[in-house]
User: What shape does this take?
Amino acid sequence: MTLKLLCLAFLGTVVLNPECGSSSDSNPIATPAQNVQPIVVNAGPANNYANGLFTSVTVCVPGTSSCQTIDGVLVDTGSSGLRLLSSVLTLSLPQQTSNGNPIVECNQFVDGYTWGPVQLADVAMAGERAGSVPIQVIGDPGFATVPTSCSSSGPPENTLDTLGANGILGVGLFRQDCGIACAVGGVSNPGLYYVCSASSCQPTAESLTQQVQNPVWVFARDNNGVIVELPGVSPMGAASLTGSLVFGIGTQDNNALGNATVYTVDGQGTFTTVYQGQSYGGSFLDTGSNGTYFLDSRTTGFPTCPDTADFYCPNAPQALSATHRGVNGKTAAVTFGVANADTQLGNLSLSVFPLLAGPNPGTFDWGLPFFFGRNVFTAIELQSTPGGTGPYWAY
Assistant: This one.
């Protein structure tokens, strides 16, 4: 099973894995209620993913009906921006340039990185369309030479075998994947974007509008956030699980906040989790993480699995509780569970595991298990909603 990946985002945090295929599509036009995108939890296109949430995305040459639908794209509320493997993309998209030289991005993760050019595409899902959006094309063979400032962050995640997905759909809290940090030059620039000449690639400042964009906020309507709607699942797990990605918050009859409580976040998109009497700032909700990741602070703690330190392997399933506290002071009690990951993942007929968990020192990564049986709202920064201006989570 593919393990979780944590994105080192500068305005938020993430992780990932998806399913495959492609076909032509025409230009969809949004009409009322055409804002629901099917999603599925399954083993992904490489058939090795645990708790991977996937969908399909249609991309088009900007302003044309030359389109391609790509399946097996990971839905990730912990990041912003669309990233597609070049190996599944058959369209020729316009390249973003600076003074005639191509712009390339290094998107870094805890266990590796994606490298590839920034290109422009119309992005369509359900009845929504975002025009001429910068996306990252991962592993483009025309940019095979990776600068050491990028490759030193870990192994490459530029193929289906290494990424475990055909792409990543980042529909998180922020409009861009980096924000103001990447828009300025000098030592404060984190070095995600590069301008590449024939001989070398050098870090460059990238304006907010040129950065890889969360496509949802570029929609003409239903552009203030998303709802991940997934049914509950037995503690024993399931072979697959279907749900909906609903665009917009309070913009149509099918995306009202209702009784959901709003939990605002800090500038990094995080809130506080209180667990066993300790407060863990930097917590976040992330469909791209395939488990609940936290550090159990009890004297005995939970043992990690014999074959990997990525997951917990307690002798028996554990029922636990914690409290979420938003920056706005709103709180909620949350129950969750931990079971032996070796036992869970050893059942190859399953790909949905609500009790999958592992260590994550210092904070709580509430991954996909948190979303089972809930409707979870993700409101995008600076976008107006009935629950206030984003960013926030609500459930």
In short: The first helix runs from residue 148 to 151. The chain has two domains: 22-218, 252-394. The chain has four helices and 26 strands.
